Amino acid sequence: MSFGLTPDQRRYALWVGETARESIAPLAIRHDGRVDRALVRELGRLGLLRGLFGGGEDEAPRDAAAMQLCLLRESLAQVSGAAETALALQGLGSYPILQSGRPELAQAWIPAVISGEAVAAFALSEPEAGSDAAALSLTAEPDGDGWRLHGEKLWISNAPDADIYTVFARTTPGAGPRGVTAFAVPGESVGLSGESLDLLSPHPIGRLVFDGVRVEPEAVLGDVGAGFAVAMRTLDLFRPSVGAFAVGMAQSALDATVAHVRQRRAFGGPLAQQQSVAHSIAEMTTQLEASRLLVYAAASAYDEGRERDQQSRRSAMAKLYATEAAQRIIDGCVQFHGARALQRGHLLEHLYRDVRSLRIYEGASEIQRTIIARSVIGKEFTR
Ligand code: COS
């Protein structure tokens, strides 16, 4: 494993940051809990969505490039959390189609996701199946050569506005994770409805109701009954990148705080002269660096095609550590700014609200600890 970025990786991260500062920062982004289609299209026009997938710019997208995804998210997060999540959700929602869908299905959706014309979403969670994803009960009943979906999905990012949902449904009752199948379901399907929810998060989240939604055999992602692994593989790829999002946010908070403690005077000198302040900044910077290294290590393990247990363990460590550290760092940065950081619209007020959901979605911190413990101690000893 290497501990630094290659010149190409550094150039890529710089390009993302510059492009975002020039073209994304000036945009008036919607914050009303609905998908901002103009923003998603702009991310496509700028070529940023292309970076979600591997392969050269002029080639058909293939699999994923985890390190590129992390650099993209870390750099974009330092400019706009809303743009960052809009981008990441395009990847999370469509990656299972690229990874496990038939070539015609991938051809129908992936280019539109990359251009920003189609909005994608990943629909796994249900009212009674959040952390325990294998408990999901949305049913896929056989219907001729296809299926009909009945049930509910809850806390689904980009719902109810997405054009294409990756939906995980139960095809074998009582079979736990082995009875789950993944489907690609267009947002305009007959019988599919939903509503937007008002949650503490930087992106749109909603609820979906499936009332006999018909799905064709061509819409199955991977094999029937093998959908749980499709979900878990997707999360193995995206969890380090949630860590990268956290690193980008914490970096912004820390940059603002270093500037602040240098110029803010109290008790006869700059705040930075107080040893407690300087030491806290040293501590936060160290935690940020540790987070970044764990994220890069997990992304490298994925790109190198390490064995699954290694990937899952590193992916869980990166998400766990980076999101927990970012929460602490941003909280510490709010403290050093004092009341001004609580002013609505202040950078730190935004970051403080936005960072909270990262410790919950794509597997809460407790789930990451379970994955790590199972890998280290053995599944038979841990629950
Ligand atoms: N890649 C591929 N397959 C995987 C996998 C992975 N990373 N992890 C598990 N699997 C497979 C296992 O191999 C197993 O298959 P076999 O029975 O054929 O061996 C199957 O999936 C079930 O795995 P496991 O027994 O570990 O499932 P559990 O029900 O114990 O659940 C956790 C495992 C807790 C890790 C899982 O439910 C999880 O990640 N929960 C959090 C869900 C989440 O992130 N929700 C947020 C929604 S997205 S915003």
Task: Kindly summarize this structure in a few lines.
With 383 residues, the chain is α+β, with helices and mostly antiparallel strands.
Describe the structure.
The protein has 383 residues and is α+β, with helices and mostly antiparallel strands. The chain folds into 3 domains: 113 residues, Orthogonal Bundle (Butyryl-Coa Dehydrogenase, subunit A, domain 1), CATH 1.10.540; 105 residues, Butyryl-CoA Dehydrogenase, subunit A, domain 2 (Beta Barrel); 154 residues, Up-down Bundle (Butyryl-CoA Dehydrogenase, subunit A, domain 3), CATH 1.20.140. 50% of the residues lie in helices and 15% in strands. It contains 10 helices and 10 strands. The chain has a 4-stranded mixed beta sheet. A 4-stranded antiparallel beta sheet has the order 2-3-7-6, with no helix packed on it. A two-stranded antiparallel ribbon has the order 9-10. Helix 6 runs antiparallel to helix 7 and helix 8 runs antiparallel to helix 10. 49% of the residues are buried. The protein binds coenzyme a persulfide (COS). The site of coenzyme a persulfide has 23 residues, from helix 6, helix 8 and helix 10.
Q: What's the arrangement of secondary structure elements?
A:
Layout: H1 7-24, H2 37-45, H3 66-77, H4 81-100, H5 103-115, E1 120-123, E2 139-143, E3 146-157, E4 164-170, E5 180-186, E6 192-197, E7 205-215, E8 220-221, H6 227-263, E9 265-266, E10 269-270, H7 275-303, H8 308-337, H9 347-355, H10 365-377
Parallel strand pairs: 1-4
Antiparallel strand pairs: 2-3, 3-7, 4-5, 5-8, 6-7, 9-10
Helix pairs in contact: 1-3, 3-6, 4-5, 4-6, 6-7, 6-8, 6-9, 7-8, 8-9, 8-10
